[in-house]
Write a structure and sequence with these properties.
two-stranded parallel ribbon, single chain, 21% strand, three-stranded antiparallel beta sheet, Nucleotidyltransferase, domain 5, 151 residues, alpha+beta
Amino acid sequence: MDETYIKVSGQWKYLYRAVDRAGDTVDFLLTAKRDRAAARRFLERAINLHDVPAKITIDKSGANTAAIESVKADACVDIVLRQSKYLNNIVEQDHRAIKRITRLMLGFKSFWSARIIVAGIETMHMIRKGQMNCPKGSTVSAANQFYSLAA
């Protein structure tokens, strides 16, 4: 679990992202603030979409630490928290694909459009990584997978 910055109407906004140990995207959330409430909202959303993780690796972010500790206390779950700037290289390297595309855009005009564009970028990134479900034994191009989502 980690966050990165994206420029929206001249101000930096925060894109929270989580990947599993295989490098597959778990969830993402674009927020205006980087605080405990935003980190907790992201973590609860990721847990609702998937399952409670056994371990979470983060950097030394205080907001993420506080959010994880509050979720552990409220839900009475045992999540191992690992804080190391080297152990979360998987998510740091996964940020590269998003940053490469958004850097060329020179920022976004509004938060609303940024959320929509980032969701599309993340979806295409998940398709490229082979995370979308397709029938076994068949090969479907990235474009066809994207069109099947629209239909």
